[in-house]
Design a protein that fits this description.
43% helix; alpha/beta; 102 residues
């Protein structure tokens, strides 16, 4: 069983799928056991409440505050445009780990 669950959301869950793969590679390289998955924003109510960290893609950044209100107690952050554009899995993983500590 994975140590922590990290969930990513975007418009349809498609573009974040690439980020998930990059994050999984980064986690493996660091010897960390995380469950990382991507979903469409419409599936937020199914997956956000049980996640240890939620990251959202820049294309749905406008939903950040609403998501925080709907999921109190769940750490949620938006992936910076540069991190997302470069598909920087290690950077996104570091962001997820940072918000899990808070």
């Amino acid at each position: 069983m994975a140590e922590k669950t990290i969930v990513l959301f975007c418009g349809l869950g498609m573009s974040t799928s690439s980020m998930v793969r990059k994050m999984q590679k980064a986690a493996e390289a660091q010897g960390k056991d995380y469950s990382i998955a991507a979903y469409a924003l419409s599936e937020e109510s199914l997956y956000a409440p049980t996640a240890d960290a939620v990251l959202i893609g820049p294309q749905v950044r406008y939903e950040l505050e609403n998501m925080r209100k709907r999921n109190p107690g769940t750490p949620i952050a938006d992936i910076p445009m540069r991190t997302y554009g470069l598909m920087d899995g290690a950077g996104a993983l570091a962001l997820a780990e940072e918000i899990m500590k808070k």
